[in-house]
Specification:
Helices cover about 30% and strands about 25% of the residues. It is an alpha+beta fold and about 70 residues long.
């Protein structure tokens, strides 16, 4: 599952959960506030993640999520 500029990460997790197969991965490109969104999501949800640096903006990242 992937989404860009759709919703805050905490909302994206709810959308993704409905569509991911077991073992599926979600990729969410996020802007400079990705750290705040990630902290809020981790306070509400349990998942593992990897941060992939953006190639187009040094302040942004792609959040790769699994284990939803």
């Amino acid at each position: 599952v992937s989404a860009r500029a759709l919703a805050p990460l905490v909302d994206l997790l709810g959308y993704a959960r409905r569509h991911l197969r077991p073992g599926g991965v979600a990729l969410f490109p996020k802007g400079e506030s990705y750290g705040d969104e990630l902290r809020e999501a981790l306070d509400r949800e349990s998942f593992t993640y990897e941060l992939i640096p953006s190639r187009t903006d040094p302040r942004a990242a792609i959040i790769k999520i699994d284990g939803l």
